[in-house]
Every structure is written in structure tokens, then in C-alpha cells.
Amino acid sequence: MKNATKKRKKKRVIPGFGISLGITVTMLGFIVLIPLCSLVVFSANLSFKEFLQVITRPRVLSSYYVSFKTAFIAAVIDAVMGMIMAWVLVRYEFPGKKIMNGIIELPFALPTAVAGISLTHLTTANGWIGSFFDRFGIKIAYTRIGITVALVFIGIPFVVRAVQPVLEKIDIQYEEAANILGANPRQTMMQVIFPEILPALIGGFTLSFARGLGEYGSVVFIAGNQPYKTEIAPLMIMSELQEYDYASATSIALVMLLVAFVILFVNAILQSRTSKIISGIS
């Protein structure tokens, strides 16, 4: 009896766990780990002093600043507008809802170069949107505003798709109970609904921010690529590659990689702590 019990305990719930884990680790190694390790290998061709000189050049630092600033602003806009869009898709019924729900993922399916060209044509002084704002002296294309617009476009699906499933799982009875207890709509939103979607909102914001930092195709056309003004970090990497300076290109890319790891690490901590706080309150 004891041996039978031990065999049952050792038996995996999911069949083929060993081979499944092996395939997963192998694919991660080929697709993720090996390409990332190549950045470190190429960067090692430079001494530490040369590495610092490359990543701290004024033009490179300016590109970092442009990328971080525009990506952060775009992620904040995505967090606000994405939450509103997710709310509308979950809580309201209207004609064309399914079409709108499908269009949300268009930035995922659309080639980034196509998105960049389309946004550039729309936001130039002669474009439909750009001509309107040009009357008030506001230029969108070939400015940091244009970069932010492009990053909002490619980042907003991350927030919508992160928040939408959480909203769908929130029981309407919680809101009804809050209303019975005398809470107004604002109090219900801030004290009942918002704490539930906060971890997902943080995750969507972080993914949008990380995607914006590394975006190239949809930004390079609308940015104008003016040094010290609208030049982004991915463009600096491409410029170094075109000059066959692989060591400098991989050094700049390595910095972006480390930043991405830090962002994802902070995201994991924030989501974990937020979830613990919410579960403790509930």
C-alpha cells in the first residue's frame, strides 16, 4: 500500500512533463538566450573604458533621453486610454463592438513600417490631422510629439488586453453591494474596481513602456531623425550597424537590454506587492 501511495505521489499531473520542459528550455535557449548572449560577446571586443566611451557619447545619451521620455509619456497615455477602452468593451453593448474589439490588435498585425508611413502622412503639415494642428502652430510629424503618437499606437493593445480579462471577471455584485452601502460611482470605481485591475494595469503599462523603448519601424519615419532632437536609440544602433561597427552597436543594444530587464524586474515586484496588498485588504 505504501509503495502504491508513493508511486501516485511521484506521478505527474501533466503527462510528458520531462520532454515538454526539455523542449521549452531548448527553444528558449535558441530563440532568447543565445541571441542575447551574442550581445555580450560582441561588446566584449571593447575594453571597459571604450565601452563607457561608446555608451556615453553626447549623441547616444541624447538618443537615450528621447527614447525614454517619449516611451514613458506614451505608456502613461496608453494606461489611461487603454483602461477606458477596456471598460467600454467590457461594460457596454453597441453596434460594431466586435469590429472595434478586433481593431484593438491591429498594431500587432500591421507591419511597423506601414504604421510609420501612414502616421507620417496623416500628421505632416499637409495631412488630415497635421493640417488641423498646423493652424495653431503645433507640428506633429518630425517632432517628439510625432514619436509619442507612434508609440501610443503600437503600445495601447498591451494595456487593453491586460485589463480587459480582469474587468470581465469582476463580479457585478461587488458594485451593487457598494451602491447599497451608499458609495457613489466614483467611490465604487476607486475602492472596488480600480484595486482589482491595478496589477493588470501596471503590467500593461510596463509592457507598453518596454515596447516603446525598442520600437524602430513605426518611429523612424515620423521622427525625422534629427540628431539631439528626434533621434532614438534604436536608430543609433542601426547607424552603427550600417557603418559595420558591430562592437559599438551591440554596446548600445546591451544598455537597452539591461534597461529592459530592469523594467520587467520592477514590473514583477510591483505586481506581486500590489496583489499582496489587495488580497490583504480583501
Short description:
This protein is an all-alpha fold and 282 residues long.
Which architecture of the largest domain does the CATH hierarchy give at level 2? Orthogonal Bundle
CATH topology of the largest domain: MetI-like fold
Q: What is the strand content?
A: under 5%
Strand tally? 0
The topology string of helices and strands comes to HHHHHHHHHHHHHH
Q: Whole-number radius of gyration?
A: 24 Å
- Our count of domains comes out at 2
* CATH superfamily descriptor of the largest domain: MetI-like
CATH class category of the largest domain = Mainly Alpha
What is the helix fraction of residues, given as a range?
Answer: over 70%
Report the end-to-end length measured between terminal Cα atoms: 43 Å
Summarize the biggest pleated sheet: none
Instruction: Quickly give the structural class.
Output: mainly alpha
- Overall geometric form: globular
- Helices, by number, come to 14
* Mean pLDDT across every amino acid position: 83
Residue ranges: pLDDT <50 for 5 or more in a row?
none
Give a verbal description of the structure.
There is one protein chain. With 282 residues, this protein is mainly α. The protein folds into two domains: 30 residues; 235 residues, MetI-like (MetI-like fold, Orthogonal Bundle), CATH 1.10.3720. The longest helix has 36 residues. It is globular. It starts with a helix and ends with a helix.
Notable characteristics:
single chain; 282 residues; mainly alpha; MetI-like fold; 14 helices
